[in-house]
Structure formats: C-alpha cells, structure tokens
Amino acid sequence: MKLLFGVTAVLCAVQTLNAQNNNDSLNKAKELDPVMVYYNRWERKINEVPNRITKFNLKQQRLQNPQTMADALGLTGEVFIQKSQLGGGSPMIRGFATNRVLIVVDGVRMNNAIYRSGNLQNVISFDPLALEDAEVIFGPGSLMYGSDAIGGVMDFHTLQPKFSSNNKALVKGDALLRYATANNEKTSHVNFNIAGKKFAFLTSLTVSDFGDLRMGKNGGQNSYLRREYVERINNTDVIMINPDPYVQKQSGYNQTNLLTKLRYKPNEHWDLQYGFHYSKTGNIPRYDRLIEYASGNLRFAEWNYGPQFWTMHTTQIQHKQLAGLYNEARLVVAYQQYEESRIDRRRNNNNRRSQTEQVNAFSVNLDFTKAIDASQELFYGAEWVSNQVGSTATNLNISNNVLTNVATRYPDGSKWQSFALYSSYKKVISSTVNFSGGLRFNSGRTEARFDTSFFKFPFTNSRINNNSLTGNIGLVYKPHERWQFNVLASTGFRMPNIDDIGKVFESAPGNVVVPNTNLRSEYAWNYEIGLQYNHPNHFNYYVSVFTTSLRNALTNRPFQFNGQDSIIYDGVRSRVTAIQNVAVARVWGVQLGWELNFNKHLKWQTKLNWINGQETDDVKNEQVPLRHAPPFFGSTALQWQYQGFAIELNAQFNGQITNANLAPSEQVKTTIYAVDANGKPFSPEWYTLNLKANYQMGKMLFNIGWENLTNQRYRPYSSGIVAPGSNFITSIRYSF
User: Fold this and answer.
1) Are 396 and 355 in contact (CB under 8 A)?
2) What is the pLDDT of residues 79-121, one digit of tens each?
3) What is the pLDDT of residue 44?
4) 3-class DSSP state for residue 461?
5) Which helix (H) or strand (E) holds 580?
6) How far is Cα 344 from Cα 301, in angstroms, rounded to an integer?
7) CB-side neighbour CA atoms (13 Å) of 44
8) DSSP string computed for 278-298
9) How many C-beta neighbours within 10 Å does residue 644 have?
10) What integer pLDDT is reported at residue 577 of this predicted model?
C-alpha cells in the first residue's frame, strides 16, 4: 500500500505540472465526447458510471493481433488468463473465475447450466477478428445480467452491419492472413458488409490452425520440459522420447468461426436484426492431463476435449419513441446450441471413455429506458432463460471395437430455468453528483433425474427452487471537469446449476465428485471506491479499491455417498466429495493505472493489479488462500504513432505466489508447478517484453510482432501449459 500511495502522489504531481503548462486544455476537454459503454444494457457515458470498466476496441485489437479472445482479454492488463491447454483461456476477474464471471455476446448471456467451477475455455468460441468492441465491467453485475455475474461481466459486441449513407450500395470488408512461429499458427479471415439505406448484410469467416506450442529456453525450471509422450504403435501404447523437449507435443488444435447478420431499418424508429454465430474446434488435447505421471510413468495415453461446438441464433428488435412508457425498447430472443465432450484413455488400457454434453439454451430479454426529465432516467426490463442438458457416455474398447454405455457426467434431460424482473434508476442530483441504484428479483429452478444403473443414488430426482434479491447503489462525484470519485455498493448471486447438483466425475486422482441435491444460491456483497483524473491528450489515471465477500459459497467438500466416504470409481477406490454451501470467500484488492501522453505521437500506459483473498478450505474448516486470486500482475507499454505507423513496446509481468500462499487445491497439483528450495510447489514470477508494429499503406495494413523477446520460459499461475517462447507474428490485412 505504501508503494500505491507513493505512485499516486507522483501522478498527482505530474498532473499538476501538466495543468500549469496547458492553460487551454480544459476547453479542449470539454469539446471531447466521453467514452460510451454498454452499462445497464444501454449505452451510457463512462463518466456517469460508478463501476470500474475497461474497454477495448477494434483499433487496439489490430495492433495487438491476439490469436484468441482469451489472449485479447489478457492483453487488457486487467484480466488474468489461466490455460490448462493451448485451446484454452479461463479469465480470472477480481479473484473470481469460471461460473462466477459472466460472458455476454451481443446482449445474450453465454453462461449455461454446465459451467463448472473448474477452469473453462468457452471464451475462445468468440472470434477476436469479428469483434467491434468489448468491455469488462468489474464487480457484481447481477442487477442487469443475473446469475454468475459475481466477479464481473465480459460484454462482447461483434461486428455490426452498417447502412449506406446515400442511394448507392455500400460494399466494404477486410481480408487477412496471419502466421505465428511459436505454434505454427495459420489463420485466414474475411468479412464483408453489403448494404443499402434500409437493408444491411454482414458476414465474417475465420479459419485457424494451431500446431504444437514451443516454450522458451531462458529461465523456468527443467520440469517444464516435455521430455516424453505416448504414441499408439501397432496397438500398443509406446512412450516416445521427444526429440525437442521445448515443443509441447500434443497441444495443437484447429478452429472455425462464422458470423452472419442481417439488419433492416425501415425508419428512424425501428431497427430489426438477425444474427447467427457458429464456432467449432477440432479435438483439443488437455495438456495438463497428458503430462500427469502415475508410478513414475505417464498416466494417460489420450485426453482430449472433443470438438467444442457452439451456435447462436438471435433476433433483436429495437424501437425508439419520444413519449409513452419508454423512449427506447429492445427485445432480444436467442437460441443457443452448445456441445462439449471429454475423451480419455489411460496408458496401457484399451478402454476409451467418451462423455458428451449438449445444452439447448433459450433466452428472452425485454429492456426499456425512459427519461423522466432532464435529470432522471429509468432502466427496466425482464429476462427469461431456459437450459436443457443432454448427457451421454460410452466406453470403446479400441482392441475389439466393443462399445458399452457407462455413467454420464450429468443427469440426462436436466433443466435449469430463471425468470427475473429488474430496474435501475439514474439521478443527476447536481452538476457534480450523479446517483444510481437498482433492484433485481430473480426466481430460478434446477431439475434433474438420476439414472441408478451405474450408481445406486439415494434419490431418483431433484428439484431446487431459488429466489434471489440483488441490487446496487452508487455515487459519482465530479468536483472538477478532470476529477471523478466513485463509490459503489453492489450485490451478486449465483444460482446452483446442473454442474453443481448432478455431476459425477474424477476431480483428481483418488477423488470423485457425486451429486448433492440440497443446495441454495451463493451471495456476494461488494464495496468499492474509485478515483479518476482525466486530462485528455495529456494525462489520465485511475485507482480502484474494492472488497467482496461471498456467503453460502458453493465448494467441493468431503461427503458421504450411501453412508460411505469412499467408493470404487473407474476401478479405483476414491474419496467421495460433493458441492456444498459451506464456504465463505473474501477478496480485496487495488487496480491502478495511468496513461501519460508526452506529445501527440508518444504515450506511456501502465496497469497494475493487486488481488488477495481467502476462502474456506475444501477439507478443513479454516480460511486458506483464495484459489482464483492471481499473483500481482500488470502491463506497461510505450506507444508511438505517426501518420500510418504505430509501434508499441510493452511488458507483461506477474509476481510469484509462494507455497505458503498457494491454495491447498493448487498445492497438490505438483505436475504443473515449479519446486522451491524446500521441494514444495510454487508459482514463480515472470515477465515478457513484446514489440508490436502496424503500418497502414492505402488499403493495406501490415502488422508484425515479436512476443517474448528474451525467450523466457514460464508457466502462468495455475496453468497446465507452458507459455509461448519467442514468437514472431506477421499479418497482412486488405480493406475494401
């Protein structure tokens, strides 16, 4: 904290000098339009919002050139990304992750009934090359977005069809080719927009192939090296020596993304749009399981996430009027299909197990905004969500092709439903003070029927009803055009889903999770204060201090199944655990950043994040380090722009987490962690230096990048795969 206050004092001194040397800057600041964000489901000026929000747009994405949306989030410097495999990326936001952070795409929630507490890779389903802009809302967002929005909301807006401004047809688009050396990435992309004054059509297609990932050579421990792997030869599992242990064998995958939108705007009052999203991957090897050892030998011959498939159909109708019960109304109806699978086979075992999950998700959102008068505005709406889960599982004997049914991961035919009413109110109290607040009532139901063919469950069905009341209240105080103080108290909740009440799976060797039908919602209280200084084109900085308390937290704890604390699962006697409302989690932290413009061509930007926390241990009834609280992390960048050139030199960095500060659930993952001087696992600190450059020449945009200039070997906290070593990226984009 002393460092924080010291840095803040220096920044205050810098801005004072800038103010003295730029007497005309205040008038310029007044002329600039504030950044708009999608807060309360509607566009709002960011200087009227009490939450900490980070926004990134198309221009930033083109310079950074991320391979996946997970990489794009990590490059914000405010979201920590964990990866169990190359085809992964699990965002951690303010100490929460997975099913405690919410993903929203074009106004539709993507979190579904089988989002788990373990690391998720669903965010890679969205194509960063089809992104128009996005924002991360930090802290609980349950008021407008419902269940799961405890740590924050990731709100993505894909490319929007544009209309012609005259009587001529509008035809525009982009084509891109990209190559990266660290994983031999080959990506091709095209998008185009065809429109008249009332009709517009847009489509975007991206095809990517990622090879095995190469790690760095400098720093890091030799335990990170991939020295051997399993290959099937003549119906026998053979352990092969890796000729290049810096290459992480069996980590590559491929992916295809398609986006299509059709928009019709007959007049200034109506705007109708249909959208179709499609994403499919090939098999994604789960690298952290493929490097597990048992009795001195590799444990698995195969462990893949099967093709991850997601489609979404959306229909949006927006209406504007001057009078009546609303000024703007928006109806969003969506249908999503999601499929994932797990395919694993132990070494020297001929049984290949495949578990497949399918989710059909329907949702309806009806939102309104109403300006009561010049100083008051009301936002209100309703939401209905329904998920149906299908779950199947088989064992295939690869020696004789005999197929048998085995226990499914989830109860087949399970349902998860939610209905909510919500409202938010904004009041301009004076020229310096804005007030906002709101409430949401949410009613949900989780239903499951259990198949007793493989496990003699003490029940055959379960129905859980959960009602939740959540809200927030915030103040924005602007004593000066450049200064802004925010105060916010907010709540969030997460309703138990099918993953909580019904799954049966091996969470770790010798541990099996079984269903628990007696669960209720977990609930979070969040408090934060923020300070911002904005001197456009000269100096900006922010600092946010927050604390969140999660009660009735759902966590995996020892359990009894039919009166027994262990059962035989997959041929191994395993300890029984289940998800239960027995934990308390507390997280606190500071987010700090600044942007200093030396002149109109050169600027320096830095973002720093301190996050800490505790949660109830899975075994002992005591508080231990919070699993999803990342180490100190951040980024700093120096960027120069001149005419068609943009060049950035940046550093990404993480502090270490000692063994004593690792969560117990992480301490047992000896395969993925480095070993300290006492032989105990820990997460070392690391840094990378990265160079990015763009050059715009007419309709051509040339991009080159050199990531990890010093070829550091490191594994981010809680990750299974080692990060890329030196990586040269080049792309060519043609716009028409």
Assistant:
1) no
2) 999 999 999 999 999 999 999 999 999 999 999 999 998 899 9
3) 86
4) strand
5) strand 572-597
6) 8
7) 24
8) EEEE--EE-HHHHT-EETTEE
9) 13
10) 86
Helix, strand, coil abundance in the chain, percent, nearest 5:
10, 55, 30
How is residue 242 written in tokens? 């890796």
Partner residues linked to 501 by β-bridges: none
Tokens of 302: 């195969």
Structure tokens at 68: 């996946």
Check if the beta carbon of residue 556 is closer than 8 Å to that of residue 575: no
Biggest alpha carbon distance in the chain?
83
SS3 sequence, 383-413? EEEEEEEEEEEEEEECCCCEEEECCCCCCCC
* Cα angle: 216, vertex 218, 219; to 5 degrees: 110
Handedness of CA 53, 57, 60, 62 (dihedral sign): positive
Beta strands in 246-327 (DSSP E): 247-248, 253-264, 270-281, 284-285, 293-294, 297-298, 300-305, 309-320
Among residues 392, 285, 297, 301, the alpha carbon closest in space to that of 350 is found at 301
What Å distances lie between residue 370 and 36, 38, 440, 475, CA to CA? 18, 16, 18, 20
CB count, 10 Å around CB of 52? 24
Identify the bridge partners of residue 103 per DSSP, sorted by sequence position: 154
Query: Token pair of 300, please?
Result: 């698995």
Beta strand 152-158 with 102-105 is parallel
- Give me 716's structure tokens: 């981010």
Mean pLDDT score, 54-61: 84
CB 465 within 8 A of CB 442: no
Distance CA 356, CA 405 (A): 12
pTM of the model: 0.93
